[in-house]
């Protein structure tokens, strides 16, 4: 018999679910409630009624999900009752030949950003998190539910299904709910499989007999169903003296369907008839590398979409042809995505887009589906929002609402799209591919190291600032060795784009956001720098990091690839455009080759009475940092800002926002003297106090006008130096142009002195009567 064990804290109860008779179940619940009553007699009645209701609801939910064992935190945890429940099913005899990778890929394909692959006790597993909202007719609070699917490491076709639900008082993202989720995660992390000849003898009762549990015997409950003539096996748990106890959960449920895991993937009480086929596959047409790039990019429009889901929808719409198939051509539908004129007009992705453009059509479909998914979540049907959105795409939302889910008229369409999506999830190139892909073959060696295309230099320079171990020459060399600077390359094992990100690496290391795609070099190249730096730190060297990046295993052999990178790096190191930025050094008063400062017509000194301003000329500099200051714009009245209220991130945007004059924010900056230019002006880093990053134009040289500014690690011999040019005085504050010495342009708010909150800052040729004047204001001066 297959058993699994979970360690639970003190004060938890384990009770059977399944086919227990109504009378037996009532007796079990009554015994459990009476055995855990509080000492205060005045609180016992209400407490017992609430607990009885909670246990009954948990058992009902477990029965709907075909579970056989329920674990409940009955006792206090540091004085607090944990509002939740956990139930377990063991699934055996899943169809022979169906590997865990296939099962888990199907689950992940439907979970989108809410699914995670992991290992538990050496076993492959998937974790899926969902939020369940209470409707007006429901007598329950919103909750967060997390499901684990755990493969048996030695017995093919055996899986453990563990589901826990954390109930909220209305806010499923509250700290208290998150703490309960973390506690349940820790419990599930103790799961281990066992193979035993026979189950330990359970503690049993017959009708009318009290429940007894020997104190020294580990808590054990059988999860098998019982007949009417058999005693009901039950475990009531008086509080033991040990800090934790190990629960063995045996007697598997036998389900002979291909993807029995899908029985528990739906929210609430989804019908098993849907789940039985939820993981089935239908073979689709092969997709070109260009179409994979389009699908992956479009799927970033919202977290509910994945590239396999969009691929399944396009397959049904047009079989990846240029026009809809006959069954999808009604209502004037056109293009690869079979969008009707109304759907196209509502979701045109950019000005001048045409429905015959494959990228425009697929992007419009993605926007349309994201909109419908949002509506599906609002109407709160007991159904996967993506399925609801698919049905609404086919029929409209009103028939779906009237049917309370997917109507029969749309069921074939929804099911077919799902089956194609499951198949595409296993194909190379899609982010939802099999969880444990085959090792990627090393790219073929090239005979010639080609020059780095100029268009990629700014992104490579930015990536080369991530850490000393990944200078620009090595970034360029790795790209050369893996993709040959081909931004549309699809690797043999699904590697994507110019940086050849394996989908598993991209999804696990790059923060998801609309428009962020491994097919976009401006996004992928800086992400490659950050990812490789992180892997070098974790794996102890570049070669190990390269193996982890390309093969998923630091011990994999990548000798040939590493040699090609080394050869290319040696050549690229001679390119003056790819020189590494130097580490920060002590400030110097020696003249540099930077441009001399311009002569200005404005005032040449700070406002009278203020002695806290940085020196304009190097001769008056203190050699230490000035500030911190709010950097206040004269025209807009707003301050230089980093998004949100905490430390920013490398390559994060620099904006303007209303000044946080009294509260805590991230708007204070120091001016750190670095060098003196040929005209005698002091050059400064402008460094954020909260995260330590400097205002940084992309790349490491001059940039074009209107180039948006980021913040990044601070480097000398880069393009991060600014000088102060006094312009005017207003309200007792001196206002300066902040001129970038590398580009000879000023810190600018996009627009004509009319930018609002969160407007991105950039560089623009300095001019009067715009929004180029900035004051440096200490917090005490507001």
UniProtKB/TrEMBL annotation:
One Pfam family here: RicinB_lectin_2
Keywords assigned by UniProt, alphabetized: Lectin
Location of region: Disordered: 199-247, 569-619
Start and end residues of each Ricin B lectin domain: 627-777
Ranges of compositional bias, category Low complexity: 236-247, 584-611
SUPFAM superfamilies cross-referenced by the UniProt entry: Lysozyme-like, Ricin B-like lectins
4Fe-4S is among the record's keywords: no
InterPro entries, alphabetized: Lysozyme-like_dom_sf, Ricin_B-like_lectins, Ricin_B_lectin
Keyword Cell membrane: no
One term of GO molecular function: carbohydrate binding
Name the UniProt record assigns to this protein: Ricin-type beta-trefoil lectin domain-like
Organism: Actinoplanes philippinensis
Lineage: Bacteria, Bacillati, Actinomycetota, Actinomycetes, Micromonosporales
């Amino acid at each position: 018999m297959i058993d699994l064990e979970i360690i639970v804290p003190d004060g938890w109860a384990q009770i059977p679910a399944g086919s227990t008779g109504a009378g037996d179940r009532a007796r079990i619940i009554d015994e459990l409630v009476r055995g855990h009553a509080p000492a205060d007699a005045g609180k016992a009645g209400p407490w017992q009624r609430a607990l009885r209701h909670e246990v009954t609801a948990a058992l009902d939910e477990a029965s709907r999900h075909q579970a056989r064992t329920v674990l409940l935190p009955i006792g206090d945890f540091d004085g607090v009752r944990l509002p939740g429940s956990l139930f377990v099913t063991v699934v055996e005899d899943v169809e022979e030949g169906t590997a865990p990778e296939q099962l888990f890929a199907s689950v992940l394909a439907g979970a989108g950003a809410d699914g995670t692959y992991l290992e538990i006790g050496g076993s492959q597993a998937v974790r899926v998190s969902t939020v369940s909202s209470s409707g007006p007719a429901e007598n329950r609070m919103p909750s967060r539910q997390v499901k684990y699917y755990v493969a048996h490491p030695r017995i093919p076709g055996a899986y453990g299904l563990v589901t826990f639900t954390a109930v909220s008082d209305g806010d499923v993202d509250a700290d208290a709910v998150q703490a309960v989720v973390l506690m349940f995660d820790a419990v599930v992390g103790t799961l281990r499989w066992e193979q035993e000849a026979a189950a330990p003898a359970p503690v049993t009762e017959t009708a009318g007999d009290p429940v007894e549990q020997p104190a020294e015997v580990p808590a054990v409950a059988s999860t098998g169903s019982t007949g009417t003539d058999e005693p009901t096996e039950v475990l009531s748990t008086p509080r033991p003296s040990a800090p934790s106890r190990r629960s063995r959960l045996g007697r598997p449920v036998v389900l002979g369907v291909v993807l029995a895991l899908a029985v528990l993937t739906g929210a609430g009480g989804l019908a098993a008839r849907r789940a039985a086929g939820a993981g089935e596959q239908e073979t689709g047409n092969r997709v070109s590398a260009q179409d994979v790039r389009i699908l992956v990019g479009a799927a970033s429009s919202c977290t509910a979409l994945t590239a396999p889901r969009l691929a399944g929808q396009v397959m049904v719409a047009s079989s990846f042809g240029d026009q809809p198939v006959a069954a999808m051509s009604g209502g004037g539908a056109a293009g690869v995505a079979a969008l009707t004129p109304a759907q196209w007009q509502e979701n045109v992705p950019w000005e001048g887009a045409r429905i015959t453009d494959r990228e425009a059509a697929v992007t419009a479909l993605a926007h349309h589906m994201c909109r419908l998914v949002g509506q599906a979540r609002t109407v709160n049907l007991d159904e996967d929002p993506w399925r609801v959105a698919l049905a609404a795409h086919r029929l409209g939302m009103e028939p779906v609402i009237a049917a309370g889910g997917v109507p029969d008229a749309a069921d074939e369409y929804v099911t077919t799209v799902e089956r194609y999506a499951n198949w595409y999830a296993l194909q190379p190139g899609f982010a939802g591919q099999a969880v444990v892909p085959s090792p990627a073959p090393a790219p073929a060696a090239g005979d010639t190291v080609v020059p780095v295309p100029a268009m990629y230099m700014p992104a490579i320079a930015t990536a080369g600032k991530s850490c000393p171990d990944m200078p620009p020459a090595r970034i360029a060399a790795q790209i050369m060795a893996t993709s040959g600077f081909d931004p549309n390359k699809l690797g043999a094992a699904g590697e994507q784009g110019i940086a050849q990100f394996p989908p598993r690496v991209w999804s696990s290391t790059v923060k998801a956001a609309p428009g962020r795609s491994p097919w976009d070099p401006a996004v992928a190249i800086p992400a490659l720098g950050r990812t490789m730096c992180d892997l070098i730190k974790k794996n102890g060297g570049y070669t190990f990091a390269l193996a982890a990046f390309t093969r998923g295993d630091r011990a994999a052999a990548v000798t040939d690839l590493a040699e090609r990178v080394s050869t290319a790096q040696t050549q690229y190191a001679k390119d003056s455009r790819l020189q590494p930025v130097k580490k920060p050094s002590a400030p110097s008063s020696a003249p540099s080759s930077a441009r001399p400062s311009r002569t200005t017509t404005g005032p040449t000194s700070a406002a009278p009475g203020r002695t806290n301003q940085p020196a304009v000329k190097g001769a008056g500099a203190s050699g230490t940092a000035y500030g911190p200051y709010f950097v206040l714009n004269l025209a807009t009245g707003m301050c230089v800002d980093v998004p949100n209220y905490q430390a920013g991130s490398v390559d994060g945007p620099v904006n303007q926002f209303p000044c946080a004059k009294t509260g805590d924010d991230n708007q204070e900056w120091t001016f750190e003297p670095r060098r003196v230019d040929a005209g005698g002006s002091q050059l400064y880093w402008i460094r954020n106090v909260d995260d330590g990053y400097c205002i940084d134009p992309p790349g490491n040289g001059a940039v074009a006008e209107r180039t948006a500014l980021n913040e990044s690690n601070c480097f000398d011999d880069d393009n991060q130096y600014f000088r102060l040019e006094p312009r005017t005085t207003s309200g007792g504050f001196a206002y300066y142009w902040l001129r970038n010495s590398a580009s000879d342009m000023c810190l600018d708010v996009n627009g004509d002195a009319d930018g609002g909150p969160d407007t991105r800052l950039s560089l623009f040729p300095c001019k009067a009567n715009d929004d180029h004047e900035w004051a440096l204001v200490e917090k005490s001066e507001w």
